[in-house]
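Morning - flavin-adenine dinucleotide inputs below, output right after.
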Amino acid sequence: MVMEVDYTVCMHCGACVGSCPLNAMFLHETRLEFLENCNSCGICEKVCPVGAITGSGRVEG
Amino acid sequence: MEKFDVVIVGGGPAGTLTGWHAARAGASVLILEKRQEVGSPIRCGEGLDKRGIEKIGLTPSKKWIAHEVKGAHIIAPNGMKLKLTEGQAGNEVGYVVNRDVFDKEMAKLAIDAGAQLRVKTSVVELLRKDGKVNGVRTKFMGKIKDIEAGIVVGADGYESQIGRWAGIDTNLKPKDMFSCFQYHMVNIDIDPDYNDFYLGSCAPGGYAWMFVKGPDEANVGLGVQGTKLHKRGDVKRILDDFVKSVPGLAKGKAISHIAGAISACAPLDCVTADGILLIGDAARMIDPITGGGIINAGLAAKPAGEVAAEAVAVGDTSKEFLQKYEKGWRALIENKLWRNYMAKEKVTTFSDDTFNKIIEAIKDADMSQISSLELFKAVQAKYPELVKDFEDLLM
Ligand SMILES: Cc1cc2nc3c(=O)[nH]c(=O)nc-3n(C[C@H](O)[C@H](O)[C@H](O)COP(=O)(O)OP(=O)(O)OC[C@H]3O[C@@H](n4cnc5c(N)ncnc54)[C@H](O)[C@@H]3O)c2cc1C
């Protein structure tokens, strides 16, 4: 698992969760959990409106 | 084990209004909301059309109406403004609400009708018996608790996980996802009688909006299509550039930041399975052109709540029985979802030049008594090539 969340940036809006093609994330109110089936596709990283997610290696900063 | 006829996951408008209808139909109802407060933080532009409110059976209330507008401006990339009165603008125009208050009032409606609501309670898993959904596993303050359900309602919003756990396909293609960011701004110079909508490359694939909340305050935000996002944090950056580019807004200050996403997809083939039905954003019921989802959720809530209550009462919560709900919500909103989805597929490909031409063509038309059909005709007369792909939508 390589995806990381910067909680000083994350607004817990769930945009990433609903966009995940593998349903591999869960939002615990204010904390994101990446599940084992995450394949680091990077969609969450792109969709996050504020850029709180990193780690797929596929999205520029 | 604790047991309810109808267990609803999500305390947004889809969940609470479904709970309201199910409770009124005589079912025991439990609504579960993972956040500690219903309606907060807000994830919405807060625009609601007046007729929509009536259609979903609500009485407008001063408690949740922040402001009323007379119409909308549609603003082309070159700055040309098209003025629409309330009747012409249709959807999303009329009221601008306080969603945090609105959502709590909807929760109160459900509770007054007999429903129970628990906040800070996450649904973390679905329970099954013989392959059929028959309850939920919840987590409240670190403690796991199972609750049995006659039927489960997935009203968990854009996240839409409950349905996917039950094997219902609610996955979105990137072209159908719109990532949004918004500021609640104060100290801005605006015409408070009009909500403004900006088309074109200021919000790639989507649009920028200004929903007025008072004489000098508004929700200023935008949505960008998933396929047009490239760098991390693009959406906030694009909004910051937009705000700087609009003279009346640039000097304003944000008192709140709002993030979220909406779907703009074709209506789903199926939003039910044995023992479960989906509604609202979870069922991808957002209007693909406007991005509004509250009224559609409220419309679908009546068949959802009533069919859920009936299914439990007659002891048949099979997918076959729940076709009654599928028929009910589709009769209310499916045609428009399809039409606006087809329109969205086209509009998201328009260049700034195309938007400029369309607004210019419509601007010259007689706007006094114009319908959307007349608008299309006006564009067609001037730029037939622009509306060629739209012709079938006019039928
Ligand atoms: C930026 C933005 C602007 C918008 N502007 C407008 C607008 O102007 N007009 C309009 O009509 N619509 C607008 N929308 C869309 C509108 O906000 C939604 O359509 C509406 O909120 C849908 O209601 P819902 O109940 O389906 O989902 P939500 O309101 O999202 O509610 C879902 C609830 O479920 C909870 N939940 C999720 N998972 C779980 C779980 N596992 N356990 C327990 N609880 C859970 C969530 O915490 C949430 O409270 C906008 C959306 C965005 C993002």
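Note: Strands of chain A lie at 4-5, 25-28, 31-34, 53-54.

O.
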